[in-house]
Structure formats: C-alpha cells, structure tokens
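Hi! If you just cloned this repository, the fastest way to understand the data is to look at a raw example. We've pasted two of them here, unedited. The first protein comes first, obviously.
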Amino acid sequence: MKLDEIVQFLDEYLRINEWSDKSRNGLQVEGNGEVEKIAFSVDACMESFERAKQADADMLVVHHGLVWGGIEYVRGIVARRLKFLLENGISLYAAHLPLDAHPEIGNNAQLLKILGAEISEPFGSYHGSAIGYAGEFSEDKSVEEVASVIGKALNTEVKILRFGGAKVKKVGIVSGKGAFAISQAIDNGLDLLVTGEAEHEAYHLAKEGGLNVIFAGHYATETVGIKALMNVVKNEFSIEVEFIDVPTGL
C-alpha cells in the first residue's frame, strides 16, 4: 500500500483537522513510501520503534507521538529516536485527542462498551471540546463490580475512591490523565468517573463532591482505542498489522 493512501484514510477517519491539540496529530515522521505492515502501540518510544523494526513494520501508529507543539532541539533522546526511524524507513503516525474522542473506536467509547453502558452524551470538556463520554447502565451496579470488569478486561490493577453511593448507574469515562473531569462529573450528577492516572489532587475533590472514582491506569485505559483502530485499518486495507504492547504499569 502507498503510505499516502493510508495517511489520508487515517486523517479522514479520525477527523484530525477538527481537533486543536498540543500533539501534532497525523504523520509525524515520513518513512518508506510503500507500506506492507503496520504496527500499533500506545507510546512513541525506542522500545516500540525497535520492536516495530523486529516485526518488519514499515509504519507505526501511536496514541502518544513524538511531537508535542514542536521540536526545539534535535539532540539526545530526540535525535536518537528520529535517527532510528529515518534510518529504518519507519513512518510514525500519531493520534492523540482524535483517538480519545472518536465515537466508535475511541478510547472512551471502547471503555463504555467494555463496561456494558450505553453512551448518553459527550463528556469531559478539555480546552473547550469533549473528549470523553457519559453513559448509563441498564441497571444499577456496585462500584466493585465495575472495577472488576475493567480490571479483568484491561489486565490492570485498579484503584477506587469510594466517596459516592454503593450502587452506580451514571458513569463518565475519560481515559489517561482524566482526573480534570471530576468536577464536571459532580456537576453533571454522575455516580462514577472512570479514568486512568491516579492524581493526588483528585482525592479531596472526589471526597467533598461525593463521587466514586476508578483509576485503571493511564497506559491500560489507552490501549483499547489503538487496538480498535488497528482492526479498522486491517479490514480497510487487508494489510498485515501487529499490536506492540509496552506497558508502563502507570
């Protein structure tokens, strides 16, 4: 497949031009013009690059890219990463907020699907745009039941702040570093917020607002979108794909 064709499809499918994001979404590093295999991973790091090469991938699609606003200097770690990609002809494509917010294969839509909740509305306003979703269970569930489902599905250790009711029905999802949405969840009358990273300041906000919060790990909560995107690309182009798992435990 032509690299340009794949990039055009991803740009349009993820609607990257609709997002104002610190991440430079889209093709960040241009490698070989012909692509026979695409690797997918959460983070643009040297381990992902090396394993993409080992897998004979010509392209790597990630959630967290290399370029955040811009590159100030090409030296040190940045230089080594870019040199590796360019010398091996590996293209790097990044999709940050567009992958969080996608209504079908995005991290947050996928997490609601895993929990068995129906999407009710966009949720989690970040710089003026909703990147998450709120949903409802068909019947009340315990916080522990929800935590168990997500823990098993993502193979992750969860942390729970039990500051709301024992039973929950309305849930908000913001993957990764989503504790900023605690106040929004309280204002929206949600029973539970599920996010990734456990931030210290979240504790007292949730406690004083009477909100249950489940932290399931930044990395773990952001594997689901990239995997779903991988399957879309595989079906669209009938091309070989591979997920590269580089868990951080965070």
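Ok, and the second one:
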Amino acid sequence: MYNHHYYNKNLKEFARELRSESVSKAEKRIWKAFLSRKQFKGLRFLRQRPIDYFIVDFFCPELKLIIEIDGNSHFQKPEYDSYRQERLKSLGFEIVRYTEGEVLQNLESVHSSLTHVVHCLQTND
C-alpha cells in the first residue's frame, strides 16, 4: 500500500480531484506565488499529496515538510486535526500550518516564516 514517503496510491484519484476542483484561493495564491516550479529555494513541492491515510496540502519530499493551509473547516474539527498532525509527525514529517487569512492578507509574512522553517530543516540535515 505504501512506498516512498508513505505515499498512499489508493488516494491518488481523490487527490487529483482535490487539485483540480476544490482548491481554495489561499492554496492557489501560495502555489503560484512561490511553491510551484521550484521557485522556493529550488525545492520541489507537490500539491494535494496522499500520505498515509491523509491528503496534505503541500509536500516537499526533500525536507519531509508538509504545509497545511487551514480554512474554516479546520476550526470545526480540532480533534481530528490534532490526531492527523501527531500521526504525520510520528512518521517523521515536519508540519507547518498557516491560516487562509494569513496567506491571503500577509503573503510576505508567510514567505518569511517558511524561509525560516526551510533554513532550519536544511541546517539540521
């Protein structure tokens, strides 16, 4: 069921649907601004990546870094989000979260924060 980075091929079609049909404004904005085409520090980011039993918003395989953009739905299910985050951390992933509001209203701050996270992960290798 799993291969590299706990990739779950059983969720592949669902992830493809999410990439094409239900992408939030914030996800589109951060993707176009600096995550697509190796724009961010030359790192490759994947969108809507199936990992374990979850689909994460963005994933950088080189750093095992997951970026989650939290919209309104996340505020309605904090227990599930907590479980999901702890499960992914237990598999060795680093997770950083931003709210939709942060991405839409202060993209520069998100970029600075992510630059810091990436720098820390690269110097810890």
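That's it. A detail worth noticing about the second one: The helical segments are 12-21, 25-35, 72-75, 78-90, 100-105, 107-124.
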